[in-house]
Amino acid sequence: MRAMGKTRRMLSVGLGGVALAAAMTAPAQAHGHGHDAPKWDVKDTKTDARFRGLAAVSRSTAWVAGSKGTVLRTSDGGRDWKNVSPPGAAGLEFRDVEAFDGRHAVVLAIGEGEASRVYRTEDGGASWSESFRNTDPKAFYDCMTFLDARHGLAVSDPVDGKYRVLSTTDGGRSWTVLPNTGMPAAQSGEAAFAASGQCLVSSGPRDVWLATGGGATGRVLHSSDRGLTWAAAESTIPAGDPARGVFGLAFRDRTHGLAVGGDYRAGQSSPLAAAVTGDGGRGWRQAATPVAAYRSGVAWLPHSRSAALAVGPTGTDLTRDGGRTWRTVDTGSYDTVDCTPDGACWASGEQGRVARLAE
């Protein structure tokens, strides 16, 4: 969404795998502060770029993408970071990165017209190919997701009253704009937020969800056919303003999902900024105890059916009961969070901040 940035147009304990999930789902200590609360281990990236794009591959490998055309990759758990930014991209704003391993990744740059681009690497960032450049001045791409190594989607804010969806079937080598006949009409003022790379997420081979804000209500759109047809559902997260709505989504399977958001403006309250679904996004329930403030990123803990983390500029919140109640466990600033099957959780944000749940 064009609401991130200077104007509306620009916007951890030694635990791994099952042990991490067990700790996160253990009963909380008195007053919600337990010895098992997660702790972030902040890594030195030697840059001040803001990393709203994050792809966690494993405990050792992660990619981040952000401002000033910056892309970094680590293969040693964050001790060292290699600058693998695409040549000539310094003027671009990368807001999403999807990585399949330490060598194959796709990054999305946002912006109006030709500022929206997609790059792809097959050699760990040693070289990049530009696989898409938007030529429609009315389009502004926000987020991207891959359902598997071949099938991926990217979404633009509404063009002529409907969200525009870009599709790849060859791992990001080429892209095609999908027909919009199966896309519901957008609300007046509605768009997606390019805040964390989580406004478009997927689970399994066919299911995709799109988070929205800015319109009268914060909505979540769902497609079960890789973006050809969509159904819209109202979330319980307030919108009604260009700065408010649903910012991030996470689904642990095709039915159980979490939504977070709020008002991204500093100092503005964000009540009711978390919601949960158990039916694939057809209906959303307000969290009984929502996140403490605006949150832009959310991720399920590895190997857990009930624990998840939500992050934002003012802190990290933890749920142990599938999103019904949340408590703040850290006050550091992060924009996005991602967890891996081998038990690692990573977060990234402003001033080059990247962290992993501490050893």
Determine the strand fraction and express it as a percent band.
35-45%
Query: What letter string, H or E per element, gives the SSE order?
Result: HEEEEEEEEEEEEEEEEEEEEEEEEEEEE
- Largest sheet geometry: 8 strands, antiparallel
Chain-averaged pLDDT: 92
Number of strands: 28
| General shape | globular
Low-confidence stretches: 2-19, 27-35
Helix/strand class: mainly beta
Number of helices: 1
Rg (CA only): 18 Å
Spatial gap, N to C terminus: 36 Å
Question: Which bin fits the share of residues in helices?
Answer: under 10%
Structural notes for this entry:
The chain has 359 residues and is mainly beta. Helices cover 2% and strands 38% of the residues. It is built from one helix and 28 strands. The strands form six sheets. Strands 6, 7, 8, 9, 10, 11, 12 and 13 form an eight-stranded antiparallel beta sheet that branches. A hairpin with a 7-residue loop joins strand 15 and strand 16. It is globular and about 45 Å long. 56% of the residues are buried. The model is unreliable at 2-19 and 27-35 (pLDDT under 50).
Note the topology.
Blueprint: H1 18-25, E1 40-43, E2 53-56, E3 62-65, E4 71-74, E5 82-83, E6 93-99, E7 105-112, E8 117-121, E9 129-133, E10 140-146, E11 152-159, E12 162-168, E13 176-177, E14 200-203, E15 207-211, E16 219-223, E17 231-234, E18 244-251, E19 257-263, E20 274-277, E21 285-286, E22 297-300, E23 308-312, E24 315-319, E25 327-330, E26 336-339, E27 345-348, E28 354-357
Antiparallel strand pairs: 1-28, 2-3, 3-4, 4-5, 6-7, 7-8, 7-10, 8-9, 10-11, 11-12, 12-13, 14-15, 15-16, 16-17, 18-19, 19-20, 20-21, 22-23, 23-24, 24-25, 26-27, 27-28
